[in-house]
Fold this sequence. Notes:
Elements: H1 3-28, H2 36-45, H3 47-69, H4 72-75, H5 82-94, H6 100-117
Amino acid sequence: MDKWKIAQVLLSVCGISVGQLLLKLAALNLQNPKVPGVWIAGYSVNLYLIGGVATLGVSTLIWVWVLRTLPLAIAYPFMALCFVIVPLLSYLVLGETVGLKFMMGTLLIVSGVVLIST
């Protein structure tokens, strides 16, 4: 697989991961979600939510572009990298913890993606 195709796949995967982080931030910043009227208003003006949905939308369009030229069996395993990137972003941005099992699983996922893509 050439470098340009790998870059496109990784751009989509990173965008999806960032979109997930933005949705988590949106959820954390909803104003009083137990009151339905405020909850709906909180969703409509939450910039994290708008950013997350937009990021996921653009990333999905990039993904569709990728699928024009790559077999799904080659491209899709790269999505497993989201299981690595999202927890790392949550560690860096939200201060969530990652342990030794996570690190070991990360190595297995990355190894698998490298093995499949070569």
